């Protein structure tokens, strides 16, 4: 609910504070008094673009500030939470226009963008100008109206959940199919690389071992010759070294007891004898094992050439890295093969999700179609009440691709002259008719959806008498559950006010400014009487005005 509007330095308004109440707030005043200026100022805090030419005093900034009560507005609270804005029972929205023409917007003293401001205030205020038909022609609003009358809220919540699940599955399936298409192009190449490595069939550290073996084979003759020479010198000659050591040991044996030093020498010679004999045996053994195998050398070279080529091709250094690469290729190939299974599973999931979604959509569509005749009948009856007996509304529902709102395309068609020539509201230009049509529709759905503060700016153009009285009655009914603000020239509508505000011009020296004040009961009677018969109302007009207020 809009509690207060503070306007400063805007157009011909110097400093003005307007307080509003719940129920029906009526604003009246002579033509040119500044009622449209009030709406222009209000539009600023609703996110309209600022016009620096509207700044009254060019030496100071202009600002418009609105105070809203939002404790019973969960949608507003959710928006504030999502945008990290302070949450209070009272919401203060301010718009400033600086001297240089730049404008800024604030919510609870926190700067916000124009987009954020528009998104927030759309939840707070529905400002309907005489020629403002945007919301009425919006398909989203039209579906909201039909659904409110159809009681589709529960099914719509379930449908939207199902629709989002269907969308998510479809997106996931698209991603997988794209991956599959890309993988198909890579699969042959990966398979070739894997098969090449699999055919090589390397074992861990095999290339490194082959390099060591090749070094050994290439040095085999030299090693064998050296080992044979060792054996020959130690044991293979006519008088081998080990035999000489054995004889030395034997010659010292008789003298080991008389002289301890001889015993020590004898023991050391024996140790040398044993060690050298063992060395000779090992040298002979190793020499027998070694041979120059040209066939094996060729085989190793071929194996190493294959390995070196693959190492260079894949930019790695070791056999283990080649094997790790082979494992990676195996995983990729397996993943590609599993994509088909995943795609098949998602296709089945998508079919089930789509079936559930369409089942709910069919139920919603059926409820909509069932409600359309009743909605048309009620709106057309209300149109007759507000002075449009020849006007007709027709609701057109057609099948459409699934969207967040269902599987229906909707269009409100209008015939203002009982000609059976219905046209889309988007093509109808009569502001007065459309304003009253909007009033009729909103009055029907007011108790079923959470409408914001409704502001009607001179929707009474072209009507008078009973039609005006009916508009006033409908507004009064509408205001029973929400705040309604209406600028009007019709006494029949003004008579229904819960709070009557009067806009007037006042002179201060050479300047003229707009002001506003609340009228008490007697002032209301006089103002309404003046609306009926002129500046000096007759006694009959005063009595008529008194009756209008009492009804």
> How many DSSP helices?
17
Largest sheet: 6 strands, antiparallel
Distance between the termini: 26 Å
Proportion of residues in extended strands: 15-25%
Function: May be involved in recombinational repair of damaged DNA.
Keywords: ATP-binding, DNA damage, DNA repair, Nucleotide-binding
InterPro entries: DNA_recomb/repair_RecN, P-loop_NTPase, RecF/RecN/SMC_N
Family: Belongs to the RecN family.
Annotate the secondary structure layout.
Layout: E1 2-10, E2 13-19, E3 24-29, H1 35-45, E4 62-69, H2 74-82, E5 90-97, E6 103-107, E7 110-112, H3 114-121, E8 125-128, H4 134-137, H5 139-150, H6 153-200, H7 206-218, H8 220-236, H9 241-252, H10 260-289, H11 294-314, H12 319-385, E9 392-403, E10 406-415, E11 423-424, H13 431-445, E12 453-457, H14 465-478, E13 484-487, H15 491-494, E14 499-508, E15 511-518, H16 521-533, H17 539-550
Parallel strand pairs: 3-13, 3-14, 8-12, 12-13
Antiparallel strand pairs: 1-2, 1-4, 4-5, 5-6, 6-7, 9-10, 10-11, 14-15
């Amino acid at each position: 609910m809009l509690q207060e509007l503070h306007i400063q330095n805007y157009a011909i308004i110097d400093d003005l504070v307007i307080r509003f109440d719940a129920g029906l707030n009526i604003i009246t005043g002579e033509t040119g008094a500044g009622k449209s200026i009030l709406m222009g100022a209000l539009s600023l805090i609703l996110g309209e673009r600022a016009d620096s030419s509207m700044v009254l005093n060019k030496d100071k900034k202009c600002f418009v500030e609105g105070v809203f009560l939002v404790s019973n507005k969960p949608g507003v609270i959710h928006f504030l939470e999502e945008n990290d804005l302070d949450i209070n029972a009272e919401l203060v929205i301010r718009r400033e226009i600086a001297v240089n023409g730049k404008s800024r917007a604030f919510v609870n003293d926190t700067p916000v963008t124009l987009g954020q401001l528009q998104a927030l205030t759309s939840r707070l205020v529905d400002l309907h100008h005489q020629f403002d038909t945007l919301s009425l022609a919006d398909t989203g609003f039209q579906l909201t109206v039909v659904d409110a009358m159809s009681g589709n809220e529960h099914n719509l919540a379930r449908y939207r959940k199902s629709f989002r699940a269907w969308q998510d599955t479809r997106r996931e399936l698209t991603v997988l199919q794209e991956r599959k298409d890309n993988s198909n192009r890579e699969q042959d190449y990966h398979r070739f690389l894997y098969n090449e490595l699999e055919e090589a069939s390397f074992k861990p550290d095999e290339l490194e071992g082959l390099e060591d073996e090749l070094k050994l084979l290439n040095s085999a003759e030299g090693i064998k010759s050296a080992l044979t020479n060792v054996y020959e010198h130690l044991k293979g000659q006519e008088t081998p070294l080990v035999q000489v050591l054995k004889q030395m040991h034997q010659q010292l044996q008789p003298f080991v007891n008389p002289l301890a030093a001889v015993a020590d020498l004898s023991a050391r010679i024996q140790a040398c004898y044993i060690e050298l004999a063992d060395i000779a045996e090992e040298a002979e053994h190793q020499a027998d094992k070694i041979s120059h195998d040209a066939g094996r050398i060729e085989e190793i070279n071929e194996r190493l050439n294959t390995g070196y080529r693959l190492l260079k091709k894949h930019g790695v250094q070791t056999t283990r890295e080649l094997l790790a690469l082979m494992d990676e290729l195996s995983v990729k190939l397996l993943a590609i093969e599993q994509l088909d299974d995943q795609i098949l599973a998602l296709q089945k999931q998508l079919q089930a999700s789509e079936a559930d979604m369409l089942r709910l959509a069919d139920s919603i569509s059926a409820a909509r179609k069932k409600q359309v005749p009743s909605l048309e009948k009620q709106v057309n009856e209300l149109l007759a009440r507000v002075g449009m007996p020849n006007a007709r509304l027709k609701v057109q529902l057609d099948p459409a691709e699934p969207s967040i709102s269902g599987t229906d395309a909707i269009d409100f068609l209008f015939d203002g002259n009982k000609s059976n020539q219905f046209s889309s509201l988007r093509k109808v230009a009569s502001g007065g008719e459309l304003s009253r049509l909007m009033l009729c529709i909103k009055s029907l759905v007011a108790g079923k959806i959470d409408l914001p503060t409704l502001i009607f700016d001179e929707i009474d153009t072209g009507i008078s008498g009973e039609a005006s009285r009916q508009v006033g009655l409908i507004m009064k009914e509408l205001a029973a559950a929400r705040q309604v603000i209406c600028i009007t020239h019709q006494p029949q509508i003004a008579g229904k006010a819960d709070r009557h505000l009067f806009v007037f011009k006042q002179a201060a020296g050479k300047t003229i400014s707009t002001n506003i004040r609340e009228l008490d009961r007697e002032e209301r009677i006089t103002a309404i009487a003046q609306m009926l018969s002129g500046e000096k109302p007759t006694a009959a007009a005063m009595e008529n005005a008194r009756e209008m207020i009492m009804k």
